């Protein structure tokens, strides 16, 4: 699609949809206008004339006057049907729906290939931060070693409100919802699933690895115990929800989303409120840091706007790294991680799962914890991880290649 006047068929007129409308009004240079809007609730009052709205998706998908479908609804299953049909109908699509993308990425990549129609989704990972196109284009030849970041705005907003402002968890979550940062189902945010969906997109564009979300471990902030929070405070560290993907020496990729202790000098320690931050590490450019708003109406709409503009000059993702790295796979059993585990007497973790246990603490008043090293795959499989009263927080060290138990024993003799 290379034209300068775009007529948009917009699905969804919630936080981001209304943000996009406002942003387009203030961006006359793009010459893009919303032709029709599909929404769901017939009883909701709208801020635009009623004739602009429809409740039938076909009114947009079958309308030849609409060049681009912008999909901004909060239902991933319905979004999938809409996006697929739009591509098959030859309409370019811009979406912010990371859940839908993460669940259907292989098919959506194939559909772009077979139809020749572009699907862009910069807003789906880190909202206003231009990460997808940078990972796809800028790091095209400079080999990336890792991406590590705070990629969910709501949980960062909640953790900031709790730690800096002393707000209770439930109050901070309610505020994140009120401000339009949280998903309609906020469990996606606080359980680490939204960050994991975004990590799927980062993996595809950073490393050319297309993985399903369920293949990666995600632990959310909803399980952070008061003992873990106290441990962090006493050590002068902050707990952040961090998504990490790291190339291992043997070529596999270790990837996970975990609450993580972040040291004061680390780039991510300065990412507050609903901001996101992403650190990339690559062969030649070395370490780089992206920082910006990771949720909210205008920041997210700004990324949608950028995708619309990119469509006008014929931009599409080429997924070059997927072709180059067809052999690449996730290797959780080749990786290990240092963690803090807090637990109640009733649900103690199995210490035999750990390669090493470092520090132990037991107190009838404060609760119990230990720190140790565990294989990433072992941690993901551990039944105790999901037991009530168990909290796992990654220590400040990154994911790394697993050291075999024997090698460790030899080294310590
Ligand atoms: N909020 C944010 O900061 C960010 C959100 N996103 C993503 O953007 C998308 C939209 O989020 P957000 O704007 O916050 O969500 P909202 O809940 O604010 O709005 C959702 C909109 O979708 C409409 N809708 C739901 N189902 C359908 C359907 N089947 N057909 C047509 N319209 C439908 C709703 O209609 P109605 O008005 O009738 O209820 C509503 O207008 C989500 O995928 C989200 O994950 C991505 C980055 C940031
Ligand atoms: N709920 C998401 C919205 C943006 O992606 C978040 O909080 O990051």
What does this 3D model show about the protein?
This protein has a six-stranded parallel sheet with strand order 3-2-1-4-5-6, with helices on both faces. Helix 3 (76-88) packs parallel to helix 4. The longest helix is centred in the first third of the chain and has 18 residues, at 98-115. Strand 4 (68-71), helix 3 and strand 5 form a beta-alpha-beta unit. It folds into two domains: 6-120, 3-Layer(aba) Sandwich (Rossmann fold); 142-293 and 324-413, 2-Layer Sandwich (Dihydrodipicolinate Reductase, domain 2). The termini are far apart. Helix content is 33%, strand content 25%. The protein is α/β, with parallel strands linked by helices and 413 residues long. Bound molecules: NADPH dihydro-nicotinamide-adenine-dinucleotide phosphate and ligand LTNE7NMQ. NADPH dihydro-nicotinamide-adenine-dinucleotide phosphate (NDP) is lined by residues 11-17, 38-41, 44, 72-75, 78, 96-97, 123, 127, 180-181, 183-184, 295-296, 300. Ligand LTNE7NMQ binds at residues 127, 152-154, 181-183, 189, 194, 294-295. Belongs to the homoserine dehydrogenase family. Its EC number is 1.1.1.3. It catalyses: L-homoserine + NADP(+) = L-aspartate 4-semialdehyde + NADPH + H(+). Residues 130-308 form the Homoserine dehydrogenase catalytic domain.
């Amino acid at each position: 699609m290379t034209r300068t006047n775009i007529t948009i068929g917009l699905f969804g007129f919630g936080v981001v949809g209304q943000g996009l409308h406002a942003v387009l009004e203030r961006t006359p240079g793009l010459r893009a206008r919303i032709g029709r809007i599909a929404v769901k609730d017939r009883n909701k009052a709208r801020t635009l004339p009623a004739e602009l709205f429809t409740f039938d998706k076909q009114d947009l998908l079958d309308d030849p006057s609409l060049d681009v479908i912008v999909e901004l609804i909060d239902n991933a299953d319905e979004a999938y049907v809409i996006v697929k049909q739009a591509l098959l109908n030859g309409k370019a699509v811009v979406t912010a729906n990371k859940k839908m993308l993460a669940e259907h990425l292989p098919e959506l990549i194939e559909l772009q290939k077979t139809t020749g129609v572009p699907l862009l989704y910069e807003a789906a990972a880190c909202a206003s931060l231009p990460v997808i196109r940078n990972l796809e284009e800028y790091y095209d030849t400079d080999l990336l070693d890792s991406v590590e970041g705070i990629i969910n705005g709501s949980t960062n907003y909640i953790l900031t409100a709790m730690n800096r402002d002393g707000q209770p968890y439930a109050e901070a979550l309610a505020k994140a919802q009120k401000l339009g940062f949280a998903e309609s189902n906020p469990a996606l945010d606080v359980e680490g699933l939204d960050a994991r969906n975004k990590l799927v997109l980062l993996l595809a564009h950073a490393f050319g690895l297309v993985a399903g979300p369920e293949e990666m471990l995600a632990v959310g902030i909803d399980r952070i115990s008061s003992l873990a929070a106290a441990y962090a405070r006493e050590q002068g560290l902050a707990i952040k929800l961090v998504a990490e993907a790291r190339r291992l020496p043997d070529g596999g990729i270790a990837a996970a989303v975990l609450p993580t202790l972040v040291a004061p000098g680390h780039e991510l320690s300065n990412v507050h409120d609903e901001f996101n931050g992403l650190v990339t590490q690559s062969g030649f450019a070395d370490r780089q840091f992206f920082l910006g708003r990771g949720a909210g109406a205008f920041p997210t709409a700004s990324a949608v706007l950028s995708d619309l503009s990119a469509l006008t000059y014929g931009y599409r993702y080429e997924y070059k790294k997927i072709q180059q790295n067809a052999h690449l796979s996730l290797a959780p059993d080749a990786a290990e991680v240092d963690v803090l585990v807090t637990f109640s007497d009733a649900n103690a973790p199995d210490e035999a799962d750990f390669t090493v246990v470092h520090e132990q603490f037991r107190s009838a008043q404060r609760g119990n914890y230990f720190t140790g090293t565990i294989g990433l795959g072992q941690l993901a499989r551990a039944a105790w991880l999901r037991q009530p009263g168990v909290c796992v927080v990654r220590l400040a060290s990154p994911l790394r290649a697993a050291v075999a138990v024997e090698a460790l024993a030899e080294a310590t003799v």
